[in-house]
Amino acid sequence: MARRAAGGTGGSGRSGGSDRSGGSGGSGGSGVKRARPPEVRLPPLVAYGGGGLEPDGDYDGLEFAEADFAGQDASGARFMDCALTGCALDETRLRNARFLDSVLTGVRGVGTNLSEATLRDVEFVDARMGGVQLHGSTLERVVIRGGKIDYLNLRMANLRDVVFEGCVLAEPDFAGARLERVEFVDCALKRADLTNATLVDVDLRGAAEVDIARGVERLAGAVISTAQLLDLAPVLAGQMGIRVEG
Asked: Which residue has the higher pLDDT, 25 or 99?
């Protein structure tokens, strides 16, 4: 049963965003617009009383600590001003769910289904996840900081004002997605798929590693460093049919 907050204990105010993301709409000196960080300031929270999640549940002002939601169905649920800390989300069904003004710290799970979900003003911190389904989702003013996510599926998703910071993304799938004002800061991007993706004001210069498996030609609309251009040169040459010899 969903429970709504009514004052209570356990909450702490918190603000999100990376220092690099800075103010809204800045240029960073290169003409690329900077991502606007989320502004998450949690009210005093009420500890979640336990029990399972529910489809279309309404969770407001709650603190979920070390909860095991593996295999549960919370499709269409709304999480507003919530903190999820150390929760297990293995095979949890959150299709069409909405996470608004919330912080998820140390969550873990394989096969979490967040397809067509909405994440707005959200912080993910130190997540350890694999096979997360976020296809067709909307991410706006989101920071994903630290941790590792394997096989992240963002096909046909809409990302606006998103920062990936200090995390490892192994084989992320951005095929058909739209990325606008997205930054990669100290982030390892391994074997990414950009097939048919649209990039607008995407800043890859701060990434620790940029490895594009498919869709390298879709980097139009992104800004990269000189060193990254040299690293990507063999892939770009192959895409353009250029033979490099000698």
From this structure: 99
Q: How far apart are CA 199 and CA 226, in angstroms?
A: 19
pLDDT digits (tens, 9 = 90+) for 51-98: 899 999 999 999 999 999 999 999 999 999 999 999 999 999 999 999
Residue 52 CA to residue 103 CA, distance in Å, equals: 20
Tokens of residue 142, six digits: 């989101």
Are 203 and 34 contacting, i.e. CB atoms less than 8 angstroms apart? yes
The 3-class secondary structure across 73-107, one letter per residue, is ECCCCEEECCEEECCECCCCECCCCEEEEEEEECC
d(C-alpha 111, C-alpha 102), whole Å: 21
Which residues touch 96 (CB under 8 Å, ≥6 apart)? 75, 76, 115, 116, 117
Q: What is the pLDDT of residues 181-230, one digit of tens each?
A: 999 999 999 999 999 999 999 999 999 999 999 999 999 989 999 998 88
From the list 110, 78, 81, 105, the residue with the least C-alpha distance to 94 is 78
Token pair of 53 as six digits: 């999640």
Question: DSSP string of 15-73?
Answer: ----TTT-STT--TTTTPPPPPPP-------EEP--S---TT-EEESEEEES-B-TT-B
> What is the reported pTM?
0.85
d(CA 104, CA 126): 9
Q: pLDDT at position 50, please? A: 80
